[in-house]
């Protein structure tokens, strides 16, 4: 017999299967020796009260053995000679689009401007240590896209639980721990993601798909409002009438290309602010209301939202036990974001703290039309680069100093390896952003006692939160509203925000695209 229960236990009991078993037996009146196995279906931490609890959804096997059902990948047919789909970008959207194309019987040809995950590491070292930004290979560009060297958080606001579960299962099939199917807030970690991404690419190639690195698309060939091919940086062209465009939120040259070719794009709201770093111990103390976290709780995340004078200000991409990374994609700019290893065992916690921006906020750049948000974002990144000293050092300020408008006389070393330049955030940001951040941090300090401290350091800017542009598509066919055969996809097109939602959108576009091919071949 199998029974499903939900139960709340201490973190210590949750960590010891035997003690959990005794607790379940006692609570449900089941003889201990009749319980053969307890399978954890869902796990979440409830830190709202002083005595922290772990909520578990369990399947209890009573007088019945548990038979493990391994996750199996879908059948991927050989597509070497199948109809082709060109996919631009090997981020989560592009890679999951490629897998889905194969599953449905088409051959994906993935074109990626960056390098494979291993070669990419050298360029990450170069930006971190030598302040050299490679415009094709960096924290945003290269195999696996922006998500490869990240915290690998896998939660999303998508309500489509079935779609989310499918992506999580695929990730497990390609090597992720099966705990991501159980945890309420799963994450993978920078050290594990490259292996999973490599396994996905190997599967694509093994089944007859193609993945080309160092292959930047610089133009689209369009005839009679239909895509006819793509041009590469080396001048060669690939003829195709099916293109999934999954180039991410940092591919500014693609947005410019579309605009120059009079292919419709729209400015869209996004969010921008700073990345703040606290000692992880302090965040644990605030969130777990204890002096020391102890061995049974993970480094604590936090999530906070406030309305500040009619604008939302919120934590974004919080990385417990993580590191702040230099995420510029061009020389002459600085950008921050964060990553964590799978154990989240670094001594610092960082988070983007960003405020909502509206399209009206970019009016100073309105001469750039739908690119106004891109130019606004770029202007802040370039100005921060100047203030930081024209290297990958970023302007930084202690948190209380920032709120009180004082330049920090000294700054501690933080996890941001290229280095810090003490600066007034009031110089880096337009006044309305700076003031909102100051007021918002005060409000955060009231909700999270201890958060507003000079032990925390603010780094500027956190600017690549989501795409400043939307590429419109038909809601049914998913093709661009003007260009037949062009499928705007993933975060860069404005249809995703994060690894999971980008992967889901990749699958969706592949399905829509393959459906048109197969309906013609039948
Ligand atoms: P991208 O991942 O941006 O992929 C686009 C790809 O297209 C890139 O590989 C790029 O090189 C390629 N490309 C661009 N232009 C061209 C061109 N002209 N020709 C050929 N190829 C091109 N999200 C989470 O959900 N959880 C996290 O923990 C998380 N942490 C992050 C940490 C960091 C440091 C960063 C930078 C991002 C993080 N994100 C995280 C965001 C997440 O990575 C993105 O939301 C996601 O990768 C978007 O997927 P995508 O496929 O739409 O685009």
UniProtKB/TrEMBL annotation:
It comes from the Bacteria. It comes from Aquimarina atlantica. The keyword Chaperone does not apply. Residues 269-465 form the FAD-dependent protein C-terminal domain. Gene3D superfamilies: 3.30.70.2700, FAD/NAD(P)-binding domain. Keywords: Flavoprotein, Oxidoreductase. This is FAD-binding protein. Residues 85-116 form the FAD-dependent oxidoreductase 2 FAD-binding domain. It holds the Pfam family FAD_binding_2. Signal peptide: none annotated. InterPro entries: FAD-binding_protein (IPR028348), FAD-dep_OxRdtase_2_FAD-bd (IPR003953), FAD-depend_C (IPR049516), FAD/NAD-bd_sf (IPR036188). GO terms for molecular function: oxidoreductase activity. The lineage of its organism: Bacteria, Pseudomonadati, Bacteroidota, Flavobacteriia, Flavobacteriales.
């Amino acid at each position: 017999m199998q029974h499903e229960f939900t139960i709340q236990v201490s973190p210590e009991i949750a960590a010891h299967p035997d003690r959990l078993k005794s607790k379940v037996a006692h609570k449900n009146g089941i003889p201990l020796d009749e319980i053969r196995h307890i399978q954890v279906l869902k796990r979440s931490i409830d830190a709202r009260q002083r005595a922290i609890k772990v909520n578990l959804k369990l399947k209890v096997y009573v007088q019945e053995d548990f038979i493990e059902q391994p996750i199996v990948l879908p059948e991927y047919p050989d597509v070497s000679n199948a109809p082709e789909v060109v996919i631009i970008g090997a981020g989560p959207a592009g890679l999951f689009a490629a897998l889905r194309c194969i599953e449905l019987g088409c051959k994906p040809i993935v074109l990626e401007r960056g390098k494979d995950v291993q070669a990419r590491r050298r360029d990450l070292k170069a930006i971190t240590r030598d302040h050299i930004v490679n415009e094709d290979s960096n924290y945003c560009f290269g195999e696996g896209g922006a998500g490869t060297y990240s915290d690998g958080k896998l939660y999303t606001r998508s309500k489509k639980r079935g779609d989310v579960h499918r992506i999580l299962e695929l990730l497990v099939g390609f090597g992720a721990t099966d705990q991501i199917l159980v945890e309420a807030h799963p994450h993978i970690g920078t050290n594990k993601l490259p292996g999973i991404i490599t396994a996905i690419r190997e599967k694509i190639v093994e089944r007859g798909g193609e993945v080309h690195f160092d292959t930047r698309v610089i133009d689209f060939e369009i005839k009679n409002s239909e895509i006819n091919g793509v041009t590469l940086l080396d001048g060669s062209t690939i003829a195709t009438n099916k293109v999934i465009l999954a180039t991410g939120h940092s591919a500014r040259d693609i947005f410019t290309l579309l605009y120059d070719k009079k292919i419709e794009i729209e400015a869209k709201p996004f969010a921008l602010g700073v990345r703040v770093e606290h000692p992880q111990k302090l965040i644990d103390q605030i969130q777990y209301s204890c002096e020391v976290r102890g061995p049974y709780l993970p480094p604590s995340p936090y999530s906070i939202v406030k309305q500040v004078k009619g604008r939302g200000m919120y934590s974004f991409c919080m990385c417990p036990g993580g590191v702040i990374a230099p995420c510029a994609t061009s020389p002459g700019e600085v950008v921050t974001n964060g990553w964590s290893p799978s154990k989240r065992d670094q001594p610092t916690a960082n988070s983007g703290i960003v405020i909502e921006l509206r399209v009206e906020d970019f009016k100073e750049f309105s001469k750039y039309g739908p690119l106004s948000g891109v130019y606004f974002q770029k202007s802040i990144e370039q100005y921060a680069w100047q203030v930081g000293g024209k290297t990958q050092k970023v302007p930084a300020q202690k948190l209380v100093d920032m709120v009180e408008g004082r330049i920090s006389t000294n700054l501690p070393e933080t996890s941001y390896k290229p280095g810090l330049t003490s600066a007034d955030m009031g110089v880096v940001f337009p006044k309305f952003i700076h003031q909102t951040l100051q007021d918002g941090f005060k409000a955060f300090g009231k909700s999270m006692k201890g958060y507003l401290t000079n032990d925390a350091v603010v780094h500027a800017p956190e600017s690549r939160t989501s795409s400043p542009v939307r590429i419109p598509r038909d809601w049914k066919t998913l093709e661009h509203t003007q260009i037949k055969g062009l499928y705007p996809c993933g975060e860069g097109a404005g249809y995703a925000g994060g690894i999971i939602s980008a992967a889901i959108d990749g699958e969706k576009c592949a399905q829509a695209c393959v459906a048109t091919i197969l309906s013609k071949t039948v």
